[in-house]
Amino acid sequence: MDTFARSESPIAAEILSTSEQPPAPVSRARSDAASTARWVTIAACATVIVASVVRPPAALDADIAGVGLDKWAHVAGTAVLAVAVAAARRVEGRDLLVIAAAVVALGAAIEGIQVPLAHRTASLADAAANGVGAVLGVAGWRLAATNER
Questions:
Q1: 37: CB partners within 8 A, 6+ apart
Q2: Does the residue 128 lie in any domain?
Q3: What residues does 67 pair with on adjacent strands?
Q4: DSSP-derived secondary structure letter, 55
Q5: Is residue 143 domain-resident?
Q6: Which of 6, 27, 92, 144: CA 20 to 30 A from 80?
Q7: Whether 69 contacts 62, CB under 8 Å
Q8: Which domain covers residue 122, as residue numbers?
Q9: What distance lies between CA 48 and its chain's CA centroid?
Q10: If we measure between CA atoms, which residue out of 78, 60, 59 comes closest to residue 128?
Q11: Are 70 and 60 in contact (CB under 8 A)?
Q12: What's the CA gap between 70 and 75, in Å, rounded?
């Protein structure tokens, strides 16, 4: 191969120049943005989890824009869950619909589990809020992924 490469042939020079080039480096800005997005997702998940565990029960009696704070908590929790799954799986397109459906199913299952429990109340409104959160989460992920390109 050395003899061929030394022949000064333009074809040989082209083959050698393309095969010896290192792969293009990943943009530092893109890498930093992806890292930041993952940390924001993790922080949001942690915040929602902590808030749902340590909040006083009366705190969810308040309304924001005529909607109970508990419904906003359902929307936020399922949106964060949908984004976290989409980020972890790096999905787009139809796979986002699968994630939304899975998060909606999980929310519905959680509501269903509450039916026989005396200290919990199942609610179709909570299930609907979970659905809204799942859709908003995957829509937000899709929008962010589109803007990143």
A1: 87, 144
A2: yes
A3: 64
A4: S
A5: yes
A6: 27
A7: yes
A8: 34-148
A9: 14
A10: 78
A11: yes
A12: 9
Tokens of 45: 């998940």
Question: Are the C-beta atoms of residues 71 and 125 closer than 8 Å to each other?
Answer: yes
| Neighbouring C-beta atoms of residue 86, cutoff 10 Å | 24
Which DSSP helix (H) or strand (E) runs through 51? helix 28-54
d(CA 100, CA 26): 30
Report field, pTM of the whole predicted structure over 0.85: no
Q: What mean pLDDT comes out for the span 113-123?
A: 81
pLDDT band at 68 (very low <50, low <70, confident <90, very high): confident
Identity of residue 141: W
Strands of the chain (E only): list them: 63-64, 67-68
Total domains in the fold of the chain: 1
Q: Are 69 and 63 in contact (CB under 8 A)?
A: yes
5 lies in some domain: no
Q: Is the pLDDT of residue 51 over 70?
A: no
Specify the pLDDT at position 133.
94
Cβ-contact 82, 100 below 8 angstroms: yes
